[in-house]
Every structure is written in C-alpha cells, then in structure tokens.
Amino acid sequence: FNSLNHDMTLPEFKFIWYMEYSHRMWGRAVGLAYILPAAYFWHRGWLSRPLKGCVLALCGLVCFQGLLGWYMVKSGLEEKPDSYDIPRVSQYRLAAHLGSALVLYSASLWTGLSLLLPQHKLPETKQLVRLRQYAHGTTALIFLTALSGAFVAGLDAGLVYNSFPKMGERWIPDDLLAFSPVLRNIFENPTTVQFDHRILGIASVTAVTALYLFSRKIPLPRRTRMAVTSLLAVACMQ
C-alpha cells in the first residue's frame, strides 16, 4: 500500500487476502488428504517395504512444499528501503515452489498409476529404448519450460512484449543482454526471461510433436499410444 497501491480500498484488500487464505487452506487440505490415509494404510499393514519408502518420500515432499510456500511469500513482505521496485516475491523462490509442486504431483501420479495399472512387458528393441530416451528428454524440457514460466510471472516479464512471433519490431530485442554479468540476464532481465520462455515453449511443442511422430513407427500398446496422443493434444492446447 505504501509503495504502490495508494488508492486500494478495504474490499479490494480483502479480495487479495481471501485468495491467499484460500490457497493456504487448500494446501493444508491437500497435505491432510495425503498424510491421513497414508498413516491409516501404514497402520493397517497394507504397504509393502518399497512402498513405505515411497510414502515417506512423498510425505516429505508435501511438507517441503508448504515450507517453500512460506519462504516464497516471506520474500514479498521484506522491507527494501533502498529499492524503488514494485513489491513482489522472489522469482527464484517462486520457481522453486512451482518446481517442487511439479515434482510432487508427478511423483504422486506415477506412484498411483504404477499401483493401478500393470506394467507392460515389452521386448527391449532399439526403437523402444530410443523412444523412452526421447520421452525422458521431452519431460526434462517441459519441466524447464514450466520453471522458466515462474520467472516470467515473478518478474512480470509477460508485460514487456505482447507481440508474437517478433518481440516488438525485432526477432531478437536490443536489451536481451543489458545486465552485467551476462548470466544475470537469464534470471533477472524481464526481456531475456520472456525470450527464453518463448524459445523453450516452441522447443517443447516441437519435441512433443517429434515424439508423437516417432511413436507412430513403433508397435505400442493401446495405453501407451493414448498417452502419447494425449501429450500432443495437451501441448497444442497449452
């Protein structure tokens, strides 16, 4: 209020407050929805030894995610008397919070599907091994693209250029490497952050499309083919 929103009314503040409060309550509900059933299954002896390790790891991730959320919000409330910048959370902590959420969600989904669906026993052909490698590489690229989106959000980098495919009148903007040292631009220059996110997004869609086309040349189970097709559909929609 002191730094930026001088004309904010009490109802406007309440709207922001309740958004934050709802997010916290939802996060706590997610934690309880995981921890309480897990404790019950453990007590009943329904978990195998390997699954117990997995459950503990996921439980740790749930708690770590909440801790990261607090650490992230704290950065937006710190006094910065020498700075005239708009108050905002640290883009580094925001990326860490989002990244841990993606890891938690992916690990939970992987664990659940592994228990619900039997693993297909397929011959380890060269094509299948290569498809698996491509899939892992595409996963890493998508994860990196999502993390770069957190930097876009944290720096309000989406407000810098609103044209596509060019950024303003240029393919490569003039202020792409305006900060020194050069490495700072990747994480702190809004122009560079938006540019990187665009490139990573295009690369992700290209990788998913290539993965889909390659999968069409290999005899795969119906479930796997549905997964690859769904991946392409979601990438195009995104």
Automatic annotation (TrEMBL):
Its cofactor is heme b. It comes from Certhia brachydactyla (short-toed tree-creeper). GO terms for molecular function: heme A synthase activity; metal ion binding; oxidoreductase activity, acting on NAD(P)H, heme protein as acceptor. It is a multi-pass membrane protein. It is found in: Membrane. InterPro entries: COX15/CtaA_fam, HemeA_Synthase_type2. The chain crosses the membrane at residues 25-42, 54-73, 93-117, 138-161, 197-215. Signal peptide: none annotated. This is COX15 protein. One of its GO terms (cellular component) is mitochondrial inner membrane.
